[in-house]
Amino acid sequence: MEEKKMMHVGVTKSQVGKYVFLPGSVERAALIAEYFDEPVKIAQNREYLTYTGKLEGVPVTVTSTGIGGPSAAIAVEELHECGAHTMMRIGSCASTSPKVKVGDVVIPNGAVRMEGTGLHYLPVEFPAVPDFGMMKALEEAAKRLGYPYNIGVTITKDSFYTEVSPETKPVAYELKQKWGAYRAGGATNTSMECSTLFLVAASLGIRMSSVMINATPFDVYTNDDKDYPRDWEHRAIQVGIEAMKLLILQDKEEKRA
Predict the structure, then answer these.
(1) pTM, whole model, 2 decimals?
(2) Which CA distances in Å does 14 have to 58, 84, 97?
(3) Total of domains in the chain
(4) 197 found inside a domain
(5) Is 8 part of any domain?
(6) Can you give the residue range of the structural domain that contains 70?
(7) What is the CATH number of the domain that holds 125?
(8) Residues forming a β-bridge with 89
(9) Cα–Cα nearest to 103, from 148, 66, 65
(10) Are 160 and 196 in contact (CB under 8 A)?
(11) How confident is the model over 224-251, as pLDDT tens digits?
């Protein structure tokens, strides 16, 4: 009997590991796959590029999700339907605090819900938080690798340019007030997927976490691609890979892998 192929991600259950990495870009998916043993390209459709290989002898998968919550939620739903139970975003973020410098590894311990997709999963009172065990594994990995890191609240937004140029929007007053409040509350960074991923995972009863490379100085943004710190992008990838290995070994001990 032919296996069911997922509508958007384009994979079947036998092609997906239980442990999955979720970068935004297809380019980063390919970079992550280079860290796998025996990586194989499985599928590519729209923004979704998928490779499967092995870590610690266990099948693992990487699937790019595109930018933002809606496409990321689709990926999580379909990969979960294929049997994945542990997922980790590896991405980039922008600093909203002097505590986070360019090239720092960022590990969110919670996310501001400045997005709409999460409301389709859990009410606004429900917190968007990662799996605690995964977060601790990421911290341990960052320590082992010796990379500077920050653990803090991330801001998940639905619109890139309402942060970088709020003054051009009709709701500028509201946007500026909210960003000021988030910073006053201690949020250290921002991106476009974390709270959605945390909430979708919570609704499905699976593990989810995030690790990011900070790509901007605090309070400075040029919108120039050449300023992106590609030389440091490997830091977030290596921390994510090391943390996933730790989780797999722990799960093996508990007979969960």
Answers:
(1) 0.95
(2) 13, 11, 43
(3) 1
(4) yes
(5) no
(6) 13-253
(7) 3.40.50.1580
(8) 210
(9) 148
(10) no
(11) 676 776 788 899 999 999 999 999 999 9
